[in-house]
Amino acid sequence: MAAAGLERPPHHHQHVLVMRHGHRLDNVDRSWPSTAARPWDPPLAEAGWGRALETAEQLPTQLGFPIHRVFVSPFRRCIDTALGLIGDRPAPDGDPNAATGSGSIDPSKVKVSVEYGLSELFNNMAIRHPPPSPEDHGDWGFNIPEIEALIPLDTLDHTVKSVFNKLPQWEETETKARDRYLHTIHSLADSYPSENLLLITHAEAVKVAVSAHLEDVERFKIKMDYCGYIQLRRQVVQNSDAVEAGKFELLASHGQTGVNCLPRAQT
Fold first, then answer.
1. Of 21, 112, 117, 195, which has the most beta carbons under 10 Å away?
2. Is 125 within the bounds of a domain?
3. CB atoms inside a 10 Å sphere around CB 46
4. What is the pTM of this model?
């Protein structure tokens, strides 16, 4: 029995959302890669912007807690998704008053940072039109200052120490990508244990986050929509000397999150 007057250390739940980007332009306009300067890095299509804005409107009801930090893959479709979620781009109909940024991701209260560890699975199965020398990182043209210039200055936090400060090695295997994604997710969570995080990334990363935290995962087939996301939660206990964090659990969907785990057909 605890001694009278002895208080337990403060504790709370940390939430981490892992989200797929919105609809990419090259899936809508098949001719786009043939004229694009960087065909390996498509932006969002109009449908993608619309889906990001719609998701921002839905999140407050679905979550019930604020997002404090957003970490985003350097690929343009992920950056655009982040901008759509914080309402930094007018709605597709051109009405500048339609995008207010009034979702659960309040641009005045959230910080956004670019994280290479959330990049696309780095091989020619996932990336359809790589540059001529894909093993040369310079060929990809990813420039962090240029990418950060797309993010509103009062929202950007470029002081964050990245988990990975460069692109993966070309011809990355699924196993190596899985290790990268899980290391990135847990490292970011451990770096900000008192904050709720949103990680905007690619389909493979969402699949990895599900499969790593789902019991009997072999029984399920994982499907995800654009802007589909999963929610991880863990208990964090903080005192003056240390922070102790429990294991993440995969929460059941609250509303439509766009990620479904469907039972595989029995054989």
1. 21
2. yes
3. 14
4. 0.88
Residue 256 binned pLDDT confidence (cut-offs 50, 70, 90): low
Contact 236, 192 (CB under 8 A): no
Q: Do the domain assignments include residue 13?
A: no
Confirm whether 41 is domain-assigned.
yes
Task: State the CATH number of the domain containing residue 105.
Answer: 3.40.50.1240
**Domain annotation covers residue 171:** yes
Please determine, for residue 95, whether its predicted confidence score (pLDDT) is greater than 70.
Answer: no
Residue 46's nearest CA partner among 11, 72, 74, 84 is 84
Query: What's the domain count of the chain?
Result: 1
Q: How confident is the model at residue 61 (pLDDT cuts 50, 70, 90)?
A: confident
